[in-house]
């Protein structure tokens, strides 16, 4: 059996384990020059264990005289703000996309003329490349863009912190809600029509059918959609980077990683490892405690167990 499994394991080790191990190894080395007490010379890439991680978490910067709090405006001072931005975007966008996606899926699941055309048109925002979407919404939220002209305002959407965050949320929800709708629609189509017919015969209202039939039976697809979208939102990079540039108010962890990569690869590796651990922890919580495991949930439903 191992002879058949070994090639797959080797491929997985090459494309997953090696890059991860290499990133962790690089994260334990310094970027800047340090004085080697044995040779009396400045050397680069010294093994520093978890110093890069400590510097990010405490927002400290190394100097010739030791570590000091990173000055405002530097990348090291943006760690916790980027963490807050990332989780803020994730919670708000995933929540809105789930509600809007479920509503869209419920409409597309009905039988009516033009349903195929509606489904195709709904997927257009998701099919557009993110870079194009970011530029499109950048022009919409420009100082003389459509948003200000329609609202009759002079809001600096790409400069002021809260308007910039709002613009990112709107653009992301517009693009990704169709993806949520597509996954939820697949779950809705797995629900037998005779279940609804039986409920109607028993006198169940539309709200009761939605609450007692639709939601429990679509839960596996819904939780998988939330899991995929959450992990994607935690890695958000191109949308805020292209729309807002290096605006700290909208900087996510991924944006900070790329910016730090241009300064020092080893400390950027530490930050990317922290990002991986955060995403892994969130995915574990969703799968383990919130039931974002479609196979397990469907098996419980089949056996009549609570999910």
From TrEMBL:
Domain (ABC transmembrane type-1): give its ranges.
83-286
Listed SUPFAM superfamilies: MetI-like
Gene Ontology cellular-component annotations: plasma membrane
Q: What is this protein called?
A: Putative ABC transporter permease protein
Q: How does it sit in the membrane?
A: Multi-pass membrane protein
Cell location:
Cell membrane
Q: Which UniProt keywords apply?
A: Cell membrane, Membrane, Transmembrane, Transmembrane helix, Transport
Q: Name one GO biological process term.
A: transmembrane transport
Under the heading InterPro entries, the entry gives:
MetI-like (IPR000515), MetI-like_sf (IPR035906)
Organism of origin is: Rhodococcus erythropolis (strain PR4 / NBRC 100887)
Q: Does the keyword Isomerase apply?
A: no
């Amino acid at each position: 059996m191992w002879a058949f499994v070994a090639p797959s394991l080797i491929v997985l080790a090459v494309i997953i384990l090696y890059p991860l191990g290499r990133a962790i190894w690089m994260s334990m080395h310094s970027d800047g020059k340090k004085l080697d007490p044995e040779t009396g010379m400045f050397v680069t890439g010294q093994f520093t264990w978890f110093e890069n991680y400590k510097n990010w978490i405490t927002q400290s910067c190394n100097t010739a005289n030791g570590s000091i709090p990173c000055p405002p405006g530097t990348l090291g001072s943006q760690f916790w703000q980027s963490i807050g931005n990332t989780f803020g975007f994730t919670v708000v966008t995933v929540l809105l996309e789930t509600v809007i996606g479920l509503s869209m899926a419920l409409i597309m699941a009905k039988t009516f003329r033009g349903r195929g055309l509606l489904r195709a048109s709904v997927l257009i925002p998701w099919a557009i490349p993110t870079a194009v979407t970011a530029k499109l919404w950048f022009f919409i939220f420009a100082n003389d863009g459509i948003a200000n002209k329609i609202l009759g305002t002079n809001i600096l959407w790409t400069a002021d912190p809260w308007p910039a965050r709002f613009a990112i949320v709107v653009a992301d929800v517009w693009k990704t809600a169709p993806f949520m709708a597509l996954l939820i629609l697949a779950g809705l189509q797995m629900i037998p029509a005779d279940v609804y017919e039986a409920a109607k015969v028993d006198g169940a209202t539309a709200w009761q059918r939605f609450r007692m039939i639709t939601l429990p039976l679509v839960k596996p697809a819904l939780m998988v959609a939330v899991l995929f979208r959450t992990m994607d939102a935690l890695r958000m990079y191109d949308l805020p980077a292209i729309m807002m540039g290096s605006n700290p108010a909208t900087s996510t962890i991924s944006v900070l990683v790329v910016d730090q990569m241009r300064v020092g690869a080893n400390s950027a590796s530490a930050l990317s490892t922290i990002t991986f651990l955060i995403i892994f922890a969130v995915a574990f919580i969703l799968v383990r405690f919130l039931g974002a495991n479609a196979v397990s949930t469907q098996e419980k439903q089949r056996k009549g167990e609570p999910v």
